[in-house]
Amino acid sequence: MKMISAAICVAMLSVPAIALAADPTSCDNVNIGADVMAKFPNVRSTCQEVKEKDGGIYIRFVGEVVSASSDKATVHVKDRSGKDVSEFELGWAAGQKIKAGGKEMNFSDLRKGDKLDFWIEHNKWGLFSKPGSSSLKILSRKDL
Are 130 and 140 in contact (CB under 8 A)? Predict the structure, then answer.
C-alpha cells in the first residue's frame, strides 16, 4: 500500500514539471511560423519572453538604438546573453510610441544608446512596439 501511495505522489508531482516542459508560451517551445523564421533566423535565440494577447502569441525582443533621426532608427537586437546578433532599421507612424528604458516614449525622441522592447507575432512577420499595436515599418534587416 505504501508503494502505491508513493507511486501516486511521484506521478502527481511530475505532472506540473511535464506541463512546464511543454509550455507553448516559452521561448524554447513557442511555435514560430515559417515566414518569421525565413525573415528573422535569430528569432529563437533573441526571444526574451512570450506573451498572449487577444488571441495572438507575441515574442518580446530587446535592442539598443545605434543611430536615430526624426523618422528612422537603427537598432541592434540582442540575444539572451546580451550579444548583438541582428540589425533592424525601423520607421514609424507619426505619434507612434515604444517602450525604451522601461518608459513609453515617442519614436521621434529615441537617442543612441536607448534600450528598446519590441514584439513579433509568432506566426506573422512584422514588428510591434507592444502586442496588439500597429506594426512598425521594417526598412531593412541583417544579421551581425
Answer: no
Q: What is the pLDDT of residue 18?
A: 45
What's the pLDDT at 19? 44
- Contact assessment for residue 60 and residue 129, using Cβ atoms and an 8 Å cutoff: no
The residue type of 124 is: K
Instruction: Kindly state the cell numbers that stand for 115.
Output: 534600450
Q: What is the dihedral sign for C-alpha 91, 96, 101, 102?
A: negative
Give the Cα separation of 134 and 92 in Å (integer): 9
Q: Tell me the pTM.
A: 0.79
Structural domain total, the chain: 2
DSSP state, 21? H
Structural domain for 67, as ranges? 31-143
